[in-house]
Design a protein that fits this description.
Elements: H1 4-13, H2 18-32, E1 37-44, E2 49-55, H3 76-83, E3 93-94, H4 95-98, H5 101-105, H6 108-117, E4 121-129, E5 134-142, H7 149-168, H8 179-184, H9 189-199, H10 204-211, H11 215-229, H12 234-243
Antiparallel strand pairs: 1-2, 1-5, 3-4, 4-5
Helix pairs in contact: 1-2, 1-7, 9-11, 10-11, 11-12
Length: 244
């Protein structure tokens, strides 16, 4: 049986667009952590802006509470992320570990948001942080039955993969920039895939982790790419692919 984390990475790496990636990642997270909904959250506290890509099982009513983006300033998970600017900030957060039910029920985030959706249990983790008040990540939501310690542990293994994938897809569409040049230079599908991720700013170690191969193998693929493009570094290689 394939390791679930490797399976997650393999299925989400070769998708064509950011929207397709969000849909596929959400579906897989719901399968791994059954619940009422899963959402990819983007919050910018400085600009007072927030957005979410939410997915619900077919049996669950969908739709976020009106004005939900105004409710995050007292959400315990978000406050924990913002105030926890330490190495531990990347650790998954279970809502029930942060506040009691009584404390949760006193928040506007619950009264006007979570309660409307029928959710009172959450498991969340960051994937991108651009400053203290600008965070992005994933939130898994349930009602009544809390997330188990085993699920918290599993999410800690899933989170690094989703960090890499969120960064890789952050620019929107994938597989378009330099595609004709890649074909003209006879790059293999694996070489094109690696160059797409290089173009997103990922290191060889990160790409290897994401694709399930060693950084040494990534280096060999890059050597082959440089030889085909007539250059000797990733900057010139990306310039060559995007200028043709």
């Amino acid at each position: 049986m394939m390791d679930p984390i490797a399976d997650l990475s393999a299925q989400l790496t070769r998708l064509g667009s950011h929207a397709t990636y969000l849909d596929a990642a959400s579906e897989m997270l719901l399968a791994m952590f059954p619940g009422d909904s899963v959402a990819r959250i983007v919050v910018d506290m400085d600009r007072r802006e927030a957005d979410a890509h939410a997915r619900y099982p077919e049996s669950h009513p969908s739709g976020a509470a009106e004005g939900w983006h105004e409710l995050w300033d007292d959400h315990p998970v978000l406050l924990s992320c913002i105030n926890g600017y330490t190495p531990g900030m990347w650790q998954p957060r279970r809502l029930s570990d942060l506040v009691s039910d009584r404390e949760l029920h006193a928040t506007r985030a619950y009264q006007l948001g979570l309660r409307v959706l029928g959710s009172n249990r959450q498991l969340s983790f960051l994937t991108i942080r651009n400053g203290r008040g600008n965070v992005e990540g994933w939130s898994l939501n349930r009602s009544t039955n809390d997330f188990t310690d085993a699920e918290v542990g599993l999410s800690a293994h899933v989170q690094p993969i989703l960090r890499l994938l969120d960064i890789a897809y952050a620019g929107g569409e994938r597989g378009t920039a330099g595609q004709e040049a890649a074909e003209a230079f006879l790059l293999t599908s694996r070489e094109r895939e690696i160059m797409e991720l290089v173009g997103r700013g990922l290191t060889a170690i990160s790409i290897g982790h994401l694709l399930g191969i060693s950084p040494r193998t990534i280096g060999k693929h890059l050597e082959h790419v440089y030889a085909k493009l007539g250059c000797n570094n990733r900057i010139d290689a990306l310039r060559r692919l995007n200028s043709r």
